[in-house]
Amino acid sequence: MERYRAHVLVCAGAGCISSGCFEVEKALKQSLVRHKLTEEIKVVETGCVGTCDLGPLMVIYPEGVFYQKVKPEDAEEIVAEHLLEGRVVKRLLFRDLKSGQEVEKIADVPFYSKQLRIALRNCGQIDPGSVEEYVAKDGYKALGKVLGQMAPQEVRAQIKASGIRGRGGAGFPTGSKWQFTAQAAGDKKYVVCNADEGDPGAFMDRSILEGDPHSVIEAMAIAGYAVGAQKGFVYVRAEYPLAVQRLGNAIEQARQRGFLGRKILDSAFSFDIEIRVGAGAFVCGEETALIASIEGKRGEPRPKPPFPASNGLWDCPTLINNVETYANIPAIILKGPEWFQQFGTEKSKGTKVFAIAGKVNNTGLAEVPMGTTLRELVYDVGGGIPGGKKFKAAQTGGPSGGCIPAQFIDTPLDYESLRKLGAIMGSGGLIIMDEDTCMVDVARFFLEFTQEESCGKCTPCRVGTRRMLEILTRITRGEGEDGDIEKLEALGKLIISTALCGLGQSAPNPVLSTIRYFRDEYEAHIYEKRCPAGVCQSLLRFEIDPALCQGCGLCVRVCSSKAISGQRREAHAIDQELCVKCGNCLSKCPFGAIRKY
Amino acid sequence: MTKETRSFERVNKIIQKYEGKRSSLIAILQEVQEEYRYLPEEILTYIATAMDISPATVYGVATFYAQFSLAPKGKYVIRVCDGTACHVRGSAGIREAIEKKLDFGKGKNTTDDLLFTLEMVSCLGACGLAPVMMVGDQVYGQMTPEKVDEILDEIIKKEGASA
């Protein structure tokens, strides 16, 4: 293998690609050619490093120097200064928000220093397009160990002993799932990877498939051996074309190397994987709907039991796990269940990847031990709330979850604690909200989502969520009535207890949870016709303070409904009849003359 | 109906590629839509006959999934992410800017010249860059109404030049 003096890792996750990392990489390579360094320095395209908003990102090893927001014109300086002279380019370093100090190494950036990476161990570390790099990081070693030294029941016992639970939402013990599928009667069995990551706000599965696809392939082969299946399917959503492409490429490489196909690694075990691309239906994340979709049908769920473990794909026993769950498996096999058990809380072992987004300084993917508190995630990893605003709530679990208000910010994040608060772990989406977020609007937003995604098969979900959405929409328009909150609560409870599948059974959660913690906001909308956060447009009023207005006319130009008029250099005024309350004027006024009520 | 849609040769090739397997119906529809930019009705019927399943089954699948369109789509499909992170960071303003810029006409989401289609999607998974939009396969992060103008102007200019 060639040896290089330094490796330059360029993040090529979807976030950095859209920020222009390929242009940076091109400029870097050109500069390396100019300085005749191509023999000494290797450029590696990696999967997602995690802090998407700082992209394009670059990490230079062996030192581990972390450069952020790199532009193509910075490449020459990085090569001439850092790679030739050994001097770090200070202006491209991350600056700690609290201390204002530059941070040189990636391990010292607060976003990373709190993390413990098991599922994301290779993301941002290796080239996802190279099976050699995965193998160099002990890749496919767990598969070799399993096939060479372990009986299927031993593999299942190890997974069970590790205590790992499903990372896709409900937190069902993974070992039990493997056990049920293995014990189910039938010659033909299947292994499925659920990569239909539909929760808005969650993107860990996408990052794993894009950044470390082989870890999922290896885990599925291990699962196939453990439950007695020879065929696997990965069901990926259509919105992730890059993940589909990289996974497809990785499957091809694994076949060529004998990690997939007939008689894997000269054992008697054969296993292969097929990709199925979804066609845009949130409900297909539900396992019975996903099965129907792989079979080429409408992705409608069916009642359970029977569970997929006994009656899944084409009525055969089928094991379904989520991407992140699979990504943990090779590490558990190699290092043992005891090693995995040391992380996390009593009932939630290991780590969880959270997708931190919303009103927070550092957004991105962070993997932390289960039981890490919300405060640590928001303030240490996330770097706090921008603009000196106050933390109001965090929303977990997407449209099936609920919110955690500020008074519970010290809650340890694990399956049990979240459930107790009326939220759920879900897939790990964590949306941070500040004082400018209206909780009624958030509840309406989620319900609108589930309402649209309801497949229509059962009445509680199809009609019930629609009725709830109508009430919520009325409230946000200032047409709420006495008794609306009680109606929402009653309907919500009814839907939870009667809907057919997980989508309907969890759809009311965001509404019930916001009523539980922010009832006063609902009441302000209904009784005072006021949106305390200033979000619900119908309840807003924009006015120009004539004492402060300089008559510059900037607001007139950005007004989307021609509602502002006035003579130049004289105070302007807003015609309330015409105003559509877009807020453009407010954000543009240089004199702070526009007020929002 | 154009001559193009009457020719089923390309559809046949796609069906053959998947050996006409029932479980590949979604993949077949996806490829057909890639060819035609939408699913013309007569092609749905043709697929049903060729695969020996009922037209209702094919139609049922085609209408179930959001990705499939039974009406022609524009050359550039603009997808504005309205996932949670994008929503709280102002995706509504991005949508308004696009609607203001392009004349879709009431209740429609494709421009009359078939150049643009606007779709609101639930989550593109680029939450760190919210608000996000996609034009074709290109992702644009940290969007502002001003950036919408720039991006669309560039496309309109390019199309105007080539037309």
CATH class of the largest domain in chain A: Alpha Beta
CATH architecture of the largest domain in chain A: 3-Layer(aba) Sandwich
Helix proportion of chain A? 25-40%
The whole-angstrom Rg of chain B is 18 Å
The oligomeric state of the chains shown is heterodimer
Uncertain parts of chain A: none
Tell me the strand order in the biggest sheet of chain B: 2-1-3-4
Largest sheet features of chain A? 5 strands, mixed
Strand neighbour order, sheet with most strands of chain A: 12-11-15-13-14
Class by helix and strand content of chain B? alpha+beta
Helical run tally of chain A: 23
What is the count of distinct domains of chain B?
Answer: 2
Beginning-to-end CA distance, first to last residue of chain A:
66 Å
Q: Give the strand content of chain B.
A: 5-15%
Average pLDDT reading of chain B: 89
- Total beta strand runs of chain B: 4
Radius of gyration of chain A: 26 Å
Alpha-beta classification of chain A: alpha/beta
Written description of the protein model:
The complex is a heterodimer of chains A (597) and B (163). Chain A has 597 residues and is of the alpha/beta class. Chain A has five domains: 6-112, Glutaredoxin (3-Layer(aba) Sandwich), CATH 3.40.30; 131-340, Rossmann fold; 351-434, Ubiquitin-like (UB roll), CATH 3.10.20.600; 439-527, NADH-ubiquinone oxidoreductase 51kDa subunit, iron-sulphur binding domain (de novo design (two linked rop proteins), Up-down Bundle), CATH 1.20.1440; 541-596, Alpha-Beta Plaits (2-Layer Sandwich). Chain A is 39% helix and 14% strand. Chain A has 23 helices and 19 strands. In chain A, the strands form six sheets. Chain A has a five-stranded mixed beta sheet, with helices on both faces. A four-stranded mixed beta sheet of chain A has the order 2-1-3-4, covered by helices on one side. In chain A, helix 2 (21-34) packs across helix 3, helix 6 (141-149) packs parallel to helix 10 (213-227) and helix 10 crosses helix 13. Chain B has two domains: 3-64, Arc Repressor Mutant, subunit A (Orthogonal Bundle); 76-162, Glutaredoxin, CATH 3.40.30. In chain B, a hairpin with a 2-residue loop joins strand 3 (133-135) and strand 4 (138-140). Chain B is elongated and about 50 Å long. Chain B starts with a helix and ends with a helix. Classes of the chains: A alpha/beta (597), B alpha+beta (163). Chains A and B meet through helix 1, strand 11, strand 15 and helix 17 of A and helix 3, helix 5, helix 6, helix 7 and strand 4 of B.
